[in-house]
Amino acid sequence: MSKGLVVLAGGSGFLGRALSGELERAGYEVLVLTRRARAGRVRQAEWDGRGVGAWARVLEGAEAVVNLAGRSVNCRYTRRHRREIVESRVNSVETLGRAMRACARPPKVFVQVASLAVYGDAGRRVCCEDAPAGEGFSAETCVRWERAFDALTLPATRKVLLRTGFVLGRGGGALPTLARLARCYLGGTVGDGRQYVSWLHVADFARIVLWCLEHREAAGVYNATGPAPVTNAEFMCELRCALRRPWSPRTPAALVRLGAFLMRTEAELALTGRRALPDRLVEQHFKFMYTNLEAALADIFHQPAAVSEPVKRAEASTETRPAAALKGREATVGRSGVGS
Fold first, then answer.
1. SS3 state at 291
2. Per-residue pLDDT of the chain (340 residues; tens, 9 = 90+)
3. Does an H or E element contain 197, and which?
4. Domain ranges (residues) in the chain
5. What is the dihedral of CA 250, 252, 257, 259, to 10 degrees?
6. Residue 320: beta bridge partners?
7. H or E stretch at 68
8. Is 312 exposed, middle or buried (0-12, 13-18, 19+ CB in 10 A)?
9. Which candidate, 308, 317, 326, places its Cα nearest to that of 287?
10. Rounded CA gap, 275 and 128, in Å?
11. Rounded CA separation 283/299 (Å)
12. What's the rounded Cα separation, in Å, for the pair 86 and 112?
């Protein structure tokens, strides 16, 4: 028997596919709102993210709505692209809000997937959910995005906002690109390597969303990221080791900017970072499967021998470690050597 319908807005990509599988295994029916509906295992309906149309009927009596919509930020930040990045996020939130307000039986939960980029380039500063917003285009976009969500008046719907970190998986996101570079011995430290990477295994991302649906106490803002952020130097070292590429030359910031220009993307995506911690998830006893980067990458790249024991240790430590203790400790990884 189905637990109910979960509607994934913008759910045809990497995160949506992972989340669909997790929800179906948990007993939910899934429907994806997408710009181009296709026949497949998961039902789809077309929407444009701007106007309320026939698609809005699927929200009636739904268990939950999860909004994953938003133009990719992997592009040059031209005036047109900036406008599209902002509007695709704000418009989708407002459109879903209008559709839910028109429901006689509105969805019980609305989960908005947002970004840790709201904290800006935070350096070594620890960013928990109460940390201030940063500066720059990415942070300002996130602020506008979150304000649109906060402004929705939905008295019958529980609202959850997930500030999501760098999600690791083979099926999409930035990790496959980094892995290709590492396999070509181009996976060295980026810039000075001190910028933090707040990472999250895709399995834990899907489990966090499911946890939000099934726990009535889940409401408000959460940092959807793992409890062990690492520096870029540490991250690239672990990635090289997972792929058996023990050394790669460092990539100076100037070369990163040149490469980003040639690849028609923004260097800030690689040269900036934030050290975020999932305080509220830990306080409310969410149990991560992967808190060790070595174990997470081993799972993704199919090295089972390195997975089981680190994951078990990670789960035990996450269950007992108080949130306050997370703030003061230094992030660590499975190997001490950082390399270039």
1. coil
2. 789 999 999 999 999 999 999 999 999 999 999 999 888 889 999 999 999 999 999 999 999 999 999 999 999 999 999 999 999 999 999 999 999 999 999 999 999 999 999 999 999 999 999 999 999 999 999 999 999 999 999 999 999 999 999 999 998 999 999 999 999 999 999 999 999 999 999 999 999 999 999 999 999 999 999 999 999 999 999 999 999 998 899 999 999 999 999 999 999 999 999 999 999 999 999 999 999 999 999 999 975 433 333 333 333 333 434 344 444 444 333 333 333 3
3. strand 196-197
4. 5-168+200-224
5. -40
6. none
7. none
8. exposed
9. 317
10. 9
11. 26
12. 15
Q: Supply the Cα-derived Rg of the chain in whole angstroms.
A: 20
Class of domain 5-168+200-224 (CATH, top level): alpha beta
Tell me how far apart the alpha carbons of residues 34 and 169 are, in angstroms, rounded to a whole number. 22
Residue type, 107: P
Cβ-Cβ contacts under 8 Å for 189 (sequence gap 6 or more): 232, 233, 236, 237, 250, 251, 338, 339, 340
Residue 317 tokens read as: 């430590």
82/108 Cα distance (integer angstroms): 33
Tell me the residue ranges of DSSP E strands in 47-115: 64-67, 109-115
Q: Taking the CA atoms of 33, 37, 38 and 39 in sequence, report the sign of the dihedral they define.
A: positive
Residues composing the chain: 340
Q: Give the residue from 315, 94, 130, 300 showing the smallest Cα distance to 203.
A: 300
- Amino acid in position 196: Y
